[in-house]
Amino acid sequence: MVENLVILALQKSAEIVLLLLVEKLWAWVLSDHNTKRLSNYLKMQILLLYLDWVLLKTPLKSLPDLKLALTVLPLKQVNLP
User: Residue 8: in which H helix or E strand, if any?
Assistant: First the structure.
């Protein structure tokens, strides 16, 4: 009989703790900072998908010459004190 009461008390305590943890998790997920971060992430993913789609549709003839794209201008030397 006492064991049953202890088990029931532990189960109820575990339910309360889990409920509090879930409430805190949802408060964090739905917080303003988190939704802005996720919104920016989603916008970036959409932009990358669009750029990928545009680049796949672009014919190779319209791209600049590879030799010009790979040309690197020499850097000026900077004398540090």
Answer: helix 2-29
State the Cα–Cα distance between residues 11 and 16, nearest whole angstrom: 9
Calpha distance 63→39 (Å, rounded):
33
Q: Which residue has the tokens 């794209």?
A: 69
Any idea where the domains of the chain sit in the sequence? 2-54
Q: Collapse the DSSP code of 38 into the 3-class scheme (helix H, G, I; strand E, B; otherwise coil) and give the result.
A: helix
Helix (H) / strand (E) element for 28: namely helix 2-29
Distance of alpha carbon 25 from its chain centroid, rounded? Answer: 17
How does pLDDT run along the chain (81 residues), one tens digit per residue? Answer: 888 889 999 999 999 999 999 999 989 888 888 889 889 999 999 999 999 888 888 776 666 665 665 665 555 665 655
Residue 64's φ and ψ, nearest 5 degrees, are -65, 160
